[in-house]
C-alpha cells in the first residue's frame, strides 16, 4: 500500500515512481471517470502542444540586470509563476532591464507554473519584450486560436483548484509537475461553443480598450464591464491606478493634473 491505498505491481510499473499522489483516491477517481467516458477525454500529451522552459534569469545566465515595478522603456516585462493569481492575472507587475537578449513569450501562449504553484495565465495580447523565468513552462498550441488556449488554461486551473495537479506532481518541496508527467493530466473533449463561452469570461476579443474619456459615461462603463473578460478588467484597472498615481504626483509637485 502507498499512502493508505492499495497499489498493484502493474500500476506501480506504469507510473514508475513513489513520490507522487497518482495512487491517491482523489486522482484515481478522476482517472477512472475519464477512462470510463471513452472518446470524451484525452491527455495533455495528446493535444500536440509545444513546450519549453522559461528563461534562466540568474546572473550566471544573463549577467547583471535591474528590476522595477513600473514600465520602463526597453525593459522586459517579467511573468513569474509566483506572481500569477488564481484568476490568471498578475498580482504584481515586474520589469527587468538586461544587457542580453532574453527568450520571450508570444501572444496566445500559456505560462504554466509547474513547480509548486501550478498556476497559469494566457498572454492574450501582444506584449513587447515579455519573458518569464525558468520555473515556468511555456505551452504553445499550434493550429489552435486564442480561445482554445484560454479554455485549456481554465481547465488546468480547475484541476489545480480541486487538488488534482497536486496529486500528479512528483518530488519534494511541494512537488513538480514536469513535462514528463503531462501524460497523467486528463483533458475533456468539449464542443467549440462551450470552449468559447468559457474563454470569453477571461478575454473577449470584441471588447476594445477602455478610454479615459469613457469614465464620465456611465452607460458605456456598464456596457464595457459586462462584456470585458478578467484579463481586460485587470488591464484597465491597473492602467487607471497608474494614471491616478501620475496625477497625484503632478499635484504634489504643484503641476497641472493633466487629466
Shape: globular
Tell me the major beta sheet. 4 strands, antiparallel
Total strands: 10
Q: What share of the residues lie within helices?
A: 25-40%
Distance between the termini: 67 Å
Give me the number of helical elements. 8
Largest beta sheet: what is the strand line-up? Answer: 2-9-6-7
Return the structural class: alpha+beta
SSE order, as H and E?
Answer: HHEEHEEEEEEEHHEHHH
Strand content: 5-15%
Unreliable runs, pLDDT <50, ≥5 residues?
A: none
How is the topology of this model organized?
Blueprint lengths: L8 H7 L9 H12 L4 E3 L6 E4 L5 H4 L3 E3 L7 E4 L14 E4 L12 E4 L6 E3 L7 E3 L3 E5 L5 H16 L2 H5 L17 E3 L3 H8 L18 H10 L2 H23 L7
Parallel strand pairs: 4-8
Antiparallel strand pairs: 1-10, 2-9, 3-5, 4-5, 6-7, 6-9
Helix pairs in contact: 4-6
Summed up, what is this model?
The protein is of the alpha+beta class and 259 residues long.
Tag the structure with descriptive keywords:
globular; 259 residues; alpha+beta; 4-stranded antiparallel β-sheet
Tell me what the structure shows:
By secondary structure, the chain is an alpha+beta fold. The longest helix is centred in the C-terminal third of the chain and has 23 residues, at 230-252. Helix 4 crosses helix 6. 33% of the residues lie in helices and 14% in strands. The mean pLDDT is 88. The strands form three sheets. Strands 2-9-6-7 form a four-stranded antiparallel beta sheet, covered by helices on one side. The protein is built from eight helices and ten strands. The protein has helices at residues 9-15, 25-36, 59-62, 146-161, 164-168, 192-199, 218-227, 230-252; strands spanning 41-43, 50-53, 66-68, 76-79, 94-97, 110-113, 120-122, 130-132, 136-140, 186-188.
